[in-house]
Amino acid sequence: MLLITGTVRVPAENLASARPIMKQMLDASRQEPDCVEYVYAEDLFEPGLIHVKELWRTQAGLDLHFQSHHLAAWRATWNRLGIGERNLRLYIVDEGCPV
To answer: pTM to 2 decimals?
Structure first.
């Protein structure tokens, strides 16, 4: 399993414009066969700071995601939305267990 976690910063004044585009990205990504989880969450105390969590079954599935039309469409909006700061990390994990 592959876990991607981190943050993306959207200027607070662009959040209303970004939300529908981000929703399209989430919905399409969640339909990918190897996607286990795909989440964006707005920070409660820092407007425009978006926490990202993705969980993928295989590297091959993640590679297909990186080549997908919906990811390309999302990236194409970054300049217009002012998205520049991204801090994402990839981790190899097992399936975990309840805590």
So the answer is: 0.91
Domain chopping of the chain, boundaries: 2-92
Nearest by Cα to 29 from 41, 21, 37: 37
Q: 6: alpha, beta or left, given left = phi > 0 and alpha = psi -120 to 50?
A: left
How many Cα atoms occupy the beta-carbon half-sphere of 46 within 13 Å?
10
Exposed, middle or buried, 78 (CB in 10 Å: 0-12/13-18/19+)?
middle
Class of domain 2-92: alpha beta
- For the chain (99 residues), the mean pLDDT of every run of 10, in chain order, is 97 96 97 97 96 98 97 96 94 90
